[in-house]
Amino acid sequence: MTDHLPVLQVIIPLLAAVLCAVVRRGRITWAIALATTWASFWIAIQLLMRVRVEGPISYALGGWLPPEGIEYRIDLVSAFVLVIVTATGAIVTPYALKSVEREIDAAKIPLFYAAFLLCLTGLLGIAVTGDVFNVFVFLEISSLSAYTLISLGQDRRALTAAYQYLIMGSIGATFIVIGIGMMYVMTGSLNMADLSVLLAELGPNRTVVVAFGFLTVGISLKLALFPLHLWLPNAYTYAPSAVTAFIASTATKVAVYMLLRFFFTVFGAAFSFDVMQLDKVLLPLALIAIFTMSLVAIFQTNVKRMLAYSSVAQIGYIILGISLASVTGLTAAILHLFNHAMIKGSLFMAMGSVMYRVGSVELEAMRGLGKKMPLTMAAFVAGGFSLIGVPLTVGFISKWYLILGALEKGSWWWTVAALVLTTSLMAVVYIWRVVEAAYFQDFPGEEGAVVEAPYALLIPTWALIVVNFYFGIDATFTSEVAGSAARTLMGLAP
Amino acid sequence: MSPESIVGVAVGLPFVGALAILALGKWPNARDGAGIVTAGILFTLVLRLVEPIRDGLRPEYPILEVLPGVSLSLRVEPLGLLFALVASFLWIVTALYAVGYMRGHHEKNQTRFFAFFAIAISAAMGVAFSANLFTLFAFYELITLCTFPLVTHHGTPEARNAGRVYLGILLTTSIGFQLLAIVWTWQLAGTLDFREGGILAGTASNTVLSVLLVLFVFGAGKAAVMPFHRWLPAAMVAPTPVSALLHAVAVVKVGVFTILKVAVYVFGVDLLGTLPSTMWLAWAAAATIILGSLVAFTKDNLKARLAYSTISQLSYIVLGALLANEWGIIGGGMHIAMHAFGKITLFFAAGAVLVAAHETDISRMHGLGRTMPITFGAFFVGSLSIIGVPPAGGAWSKWFLGMGTLEAGQIGLLAVLMVSSLLSLVYLLEVPIRAFFSAPPEDADHGEGIHEAPWTSVAAMIITAGATMALFLNPGPFYALMTLVTSR
Question: Could you report the predicted ipTM of this complex, rounded to two decimals?
Fold first, then answer.
């Protein structure tokens, strides 16, 4: 049984999604989703523990041995990403019950959970597989279901947002499949481990270089690297609250995982950075993303959109860590995958609670909520502290490694560290606009019109806040895992 | 209790006190009693650390490891003990004062106020007893965040704007400069521990270390070295007990304490003396001393005048650290204590006038001395300490600082100290002299119905004014602690 955990990680949510589509009863499908996400979470934890002790797990799907058959291959990086995705799913699903009932037509709820579980399947599949074409398949599963989920938003603009994402996402996926195709033409293999050997033998062949380019652009589109982020703000703003919390914490993270997998495992760090000079492309884009998107976030009047722009900036931090091309930088990037998922998850969930009670997430709707919804707003403030990077929160840990990584490079790199710190202060500004509205302005409506969010929403939100502080106070575990994962990717450890 | 466990309890106790205050919110007497009792226990605990420290012990209390090699950890050394003694003693007095003030002034949300106040003290203890730069930074930021609700207590647009300045400057300096300096130190030295003799010597070129020193000095924005001083006058919108304990003692002293601690235990006095930026920064502090005094002149609002006086006086301590010799460090450390007792007395008096006579401007206080003799008498004593003349404790710290400037061969800096004392003589003593000897303004009603503030507030003033004079007669305990810092 435990030998089959890698495939169960994907099969369980896939079958559960089908089950949801068949059952068609709102609450039952929710229960199925709940059981599935927690089972997946348990599996992910098991896998992480096993990988830490025994090293990478290789699983031949259907008994067909690689490189001909599809291999599921789980190392520290993929196990860590599996935990991020399933943990978010396990926390968001209990939250979704009330939030989704409020925001989505009752008739559509079973299909919502089916799409949700399909999305989970796709995201997990990308992380477990060791086969590049399989990555593309799972990417399409997760993307198509994500478009569906986003289009279920209350606001009719959700439809155009989903359509925009569909177009951009499909372009990205196409680029990726073209890149994969070119690699297949040159090597005749789709297995990652096999490819890395064959590509290294081939050297910087022109077709391989073009494939590298297609993959870079395609993946950058999926992970919303500036300036390919245009689909993201609308998608996050108009999606149902639970979907935003889930997608924001997982979809872009898994895309970053794809980037790591292709550039470090398939092409190899030496090819990506020394030959292709990928860092020279990523670094400026990351810096522009961090600075301009933080600036844009300051001027948003819709809090979800503000957080969406903040996400693009935070993705910039992750890409910055990768572009440092060092163990510390990569550790910062991998850590921030987890940390940012916890931060943004909690913030979007707090906003979901506001949506539930007030029906709007415009900045104006926050007025006086400090008194009306004290626990929700306290969660937002606590999550905001983590986003800013106050010590003893996960946000601080990420920044610590990122700044350290920049300073380690020596000479003028301290300016990069200074920019990271400057943008943390910009985060103070946009978080504080919400704080001031909530705590310094009077509630405009009638007395008793708005009360605290129900526990079904509060408990999951606060659970994430606790995670934010727990792994900020004792980051030895996460930093150790991220550090080992980084060394593995850099080829310094098995 | 062993000294080690006292250290841990001292940091945790005010936090527990805050919880008790929240729990007792419905019963104001019990709530305020809990506050005062917590403060009393805290002080007696800290007092019990004096003996072991004198015997050469340095009790440690590791809390946990946050990252490999980076830990939250406490360790008591003499400088931190001095700061903790001052802060915990003055918390008792302020708790007493605040009860009278908050009730006399009919402030709202008193439970929230006292709870955040206690958390701020908890964090100040954490800073005082921090064993490394990370711990110091964590508690430093906690102070900033938990004093924000105190500064903006009234919730008015004015308070909100002041809160923006407060948070803006304090977070900009701490995240922008101090955090960068800390990570840089970690990268250079491979440790963040405070060690006798410093950790940075020989790790990088003098140019890099000079830059690092600049980052540390301006990164401790709570020390209010110009141009990062504007948050302190802004913070004066807070209720007076906050201005008195936090913005004359705990918060601002955390800033100068950080600089002293970094100077002694991160750079080390020897290294500090060789860096090119040290003297440059000393003159920046000197400029703050003079400019702060000059601006204080222009302020008619009493609390604003006191705030600029604080800015000026804080830079005395910064200057002391940057003189990079024994006398400078001793003088700076003692000035933490001496200035605290003097300035808190002045703020208590200012608050008492506000509660009793509802006046905030100095020009409107003329003639009030006759109806409030104790208040203005206390103000007079406090002023003497700030000016630095007998019979007040401030005379000693200024004496040592003066010796430090001579030892460093900086006659110019000595002149700055003298000029600033003269300036403070004028801008501070104007207040009690006008109150006692000038005629009241014509439209003012200073007759019937005005009397001294509530008795707890008056008692608090008498205690701090008395302590100021006692410290002139016997500065020994603080001096002894500071010689432990400098002796190797």
Answer: 0.88
Place of tokens 């935070």: A314
Q: Is B339 exposed, middle or buried (0-12, 13-18, 19+ CB in 10 A)?
A: buried
d(C-alpha B401, C-alpha A397), whole Å:
40
Q: With contacts defined as CB-CB under 8 Å, which chain A residues touch B134?
A: 391
End-to-end CA distance of chain A: 26
Task: Give A424-458 as a DSSP string.
Answer: HHHHHHHHHHHHHHHHHS---S-TTSS-PPPHHHH
d(CA B122, CA B99): 19
The string of pLDDT tens digits covering residues A94-138 is 999 999 989 888 888 999 999 999 999 999 999 999 999 999 999
CA distances from A433 to A20, A424, B29 (A): 41, 15, 37
- Please give the DSSP secondary-structure letter assigned to residue A70: P
Q: How many whole angstroms separate alpha carbon A440 and alpha carbon A435?
A: 8
Question: Distance (Å, rounded) from C-alpha B157 to C-alpha A214?
Answer: 53
Chain A residues touching residue B159 (CB < 8 angstroms): 440
Enter the tokens of residue A186.
């040159």
Three-class DSSP category at A246: helix
Tell the residue number behind the tokens 């490999």, with chain if given: B68
Nearest-angstrom CA–CA distance, A388 and B145: 12
What's the first-to-final CA gap in chain B, in angstroms? Answer: 29
Q: Which of B141, B167, B176 sits opposite A421 (nearest CB)?
A: B176
Instruction: Quote the pTM value.
Output: 0.91
With CB atoms and an 8 Å threshold, state whether B66 touches A422. Answer: no
Residues of chain B in contact with residue A474, where contact means CB-CB under 8 angstroms, are 64-66
What pairs with residue B73 in β-bridges? B62
Mutate to test the interface with B, among A371, A419, A425 (most CBs of B within 10 A): A425
Task: Find out whether the peptide bond into B454 is cis, omega within 30 degrees of 0.
Answer: no
State residue A270 phi and psi, 5-degree precision: -65, -45
Q: Encoding tokens for residue B16?
A: 């527990």
Q: Which residues of B touch A374 (CB under 8 A)?
A: none
Spatial distance between the Cα atoms of A382 and B141, rounded to a whole number of angstroms = 14
Q: From CA A147, how far away is CA A155, in angstroms rounded?
A: 15
What is the DSSP secondary structure assignment for residue A324, as one 8-state letter? T
Rounded CA-CA distance A494/B333 in Å is 54
What is the helix, strand, coil percentage profile of chain B, to 5? 75, 5, 20
Grouping H, G, I as helix, E, B as strand and the rest as coil, residue A30 is helix
Can you tell me the distance from the alpha carbon of B476 to that of B481, in angstroms, rounded to the nearest whole number?
Answer: 9
**Three-state SS at A376:** helix
Residue in A407, A439, A480 closest to B183 by CB? A407
CB atoms < 10 A from the CB of A455, how many? 11
The single-letter code of the amino acid at A27 is: R
Q: Which residues contact A68 (CB under 8 A, 6 or more apart)?
A: none
pLDDT tens digits in sequence order for chain B, 488 residues long: 788 888 888 888 889 988 888 888 788 888 888 888 888 999 999 989 888 888 888 888 888 888 888 899 999 989 999 999 999 988 888 888 888 777 777 777 888 888 888 899 999 999 999 999 999 999 999 999 999 988 888 888 888 889 999 999 999 999 989 999 999 999 998 889 998 888 888 888 888 899 999 999 999 989 888 889 998 888 888 888 888 877 777 888 999 999 999 999 999 888 888 888 888 999 999 999 999 999 998 988 888 999 999 999 999 999 999 988 888 899 999 999 999 999 999 988 888 888 888 888 888 888 888 888 888 889 999 999 999 888 888 889 899 999 899 988 888 899 999 999 999 999 998 888 888 888 877 776 665 567 777 788 888 889 999 999 898 888 888 888 888 888 75
Distance (Å, rounded) from C-alpha A51 to C-alpha A55? 5
